[in-house]
Amino acid sequence: MTTFISGCEVVRLSSGVLTSPEYPFKKINDIKIRMIKKGVRVIDLGVGDTFLSAPEVAVEAMKKAVDDTANHHYNSYNGLPFFRETVSEWMLKRFGIKIDPENEITAVIGTKEALFRIPSAFIDSGDIALIPEPVYPALVSGLQFSGGSPYTLPLKVENRFLPDLDNIPEKIRQKAKFIYINYPNNPSTAEMTSEFAKKLLKFAEKYDWGIVSDMAYSEIYEKTPNISLLEFEGAMDRVVEFHSLSKTYSMTGFRIGFAAGNKDIISALVKIKSIRGSSPFQPVQAAAAAALKYGEDYLSKMRELYSFNRKMMKSLFSNKGLEFFHSSSTFYIWACVPEGMTSLSFSEHMLEKYGTIVTPGALLGQWGEGWFRACFARPAEELEEFVNRFGR
Which of 294, 310, 342 is the last residue of a domain? Predict the structure, then answer.
């Protein structure tokens, strides 16, 4: 076991800490800090955070809830009943899905934390899970900390960044405990089709997989709403779906989301939370419930803004001869790096020449190599400055 020496003591670190890679977006932030210290006015299109403020109705609901001293104490590990009931109403209105607020929904302290923990509900030491790549890093880290191993499913442009289920070896299909999907996809921006959803559920039924569906970007689209896997027959037997208010309602700092789906998986997640964590601060749940109930106008304005920014970025990249994946979801552009460059060398080039951070695809897994991600959830003046710099 590798040791870390502090003073006269030897601290033995866990294999999970020693083998887990550094969180990719921390690396990007470190580069950003170094550039700022050099006096560069950095345009950050790397990290997926928006400049928008949370809905006013959510902020007011939180202020009111903070003044209620009943909210200053421990709360239910499952989340407060009014929050779960609001989520149930939202799921019915948005997707036409009836979800039991008592047994099929739980509040989570942001979906990153929950996605890190959910492998513990499926995985024993030596088990494997099917993980598409490029991938949001938190799930792979959670899988490794649970003693499991990922079997990588390459996401390729020729398959519109959907996993090729037919190409999974039979031995792996039989051994896998669960499969992770993320649509609309980060980083590729791809959207899930009904055909893929039905095929996935058939595979999962045949091989008894659990399905973890991450829908953090469900409400960021232009004209056609994104579909939920829970809309399809048989999904409630094996699917748990995660929704985040971070991207949907620009509430990244609030750390609030929810999981919905199969009652046994939800029960297991609540059990894990009761041992290792808690539920969001009650006033944060009040803010989230207000956003879900009264935030439709906010979403419409947000989509309009992102649509404008998306078109601006696509036009710029087209004019510069950069190829990119065409999508109407998320607030990213997923584009190919120029020939002869790696995703990392291109990202370094963008920093050095244009003072702009983009995310190299290789930080999101080996199948992200050759691509980069640019976030356009930025103020108009910042994007205009980027257009001026890069357009030249």
Answer: 294
Confidence band for 180, pLDDT divided at 50, 70 and 90:
very high
CATH number for the domain spanning 175: value is 3.40.640.10
The span from the CA of 181 to the CA of 191, in Å, is 11
Confidence of residue 12 (pLDDT cuts 50, 70, 90): confident
Render the burial of 317-331: b for 16+ CB within 10 Å, e for the rest. Answer: beeeebebbebbbbb
Residues 273 and 317 in one domain: no
Q: Find out whether 108 and 114 touch, Cβ atoms under 8 Å.
A: yes
- pLDDT, tens digit, 9 for 90 and up, residues 278-329: 889 999 999 999 999 999 999 999 999 999 999 999 999 999 999 999 999 9
Residue 219 lies in a domain: yes
Amino acid at 254: F
Instruction: Name beta bridge partners: 129.
Output: 150
State which residues form the domain around 129: 56-294
Number of domains in the chain: 2
Q: Are residues 81 and 202 in the same domain?
A: yes
| Strands 149-154 and 178-182, bridge-based pairing | unpaired
CB-count burial class (<10 Å; 0-12, 13-18, 19+) for 57:
middle
Q: Do 63 and 164 share a domain, yes or no?
A: yes
Q: Report, as an integer, the average pLDDT of 256-284.
A: 92
For residue 15, pLDDT beyond 80: no
Task: Please tell me the distance from the alpha carbon of residue 131 to that of residue 140, in angstroms, as a whole number.
Answer: 8
Confidence of residue 61 (pLDDT cuts 50, 70, 90): very high
Strand order in the sheet with 105-108: 105-108, 257-261, 239-244, 210-214, 178-182, 128-133, 149-154
Q: Average pLDDT over the chain, rounded to whole?
A: 92
Cβ-Cβ contacts under 8 Å for 217 (sequence gap 6 or more): 184, 186, 226, 247, 248, 329, 330, 331
How wide is the angle at C-alpha 113 spanned by C-alphas 110 and 118, nearest 5°?
A: 115
Same domain (yes/no): 178, 323: no
Question: Looking at 294, 328, 363, which one is the last position of a domain?
Answer: 294
Q: Locate 148 and state its tokens.
A: 């499991």
Residues shown for the chain: 392
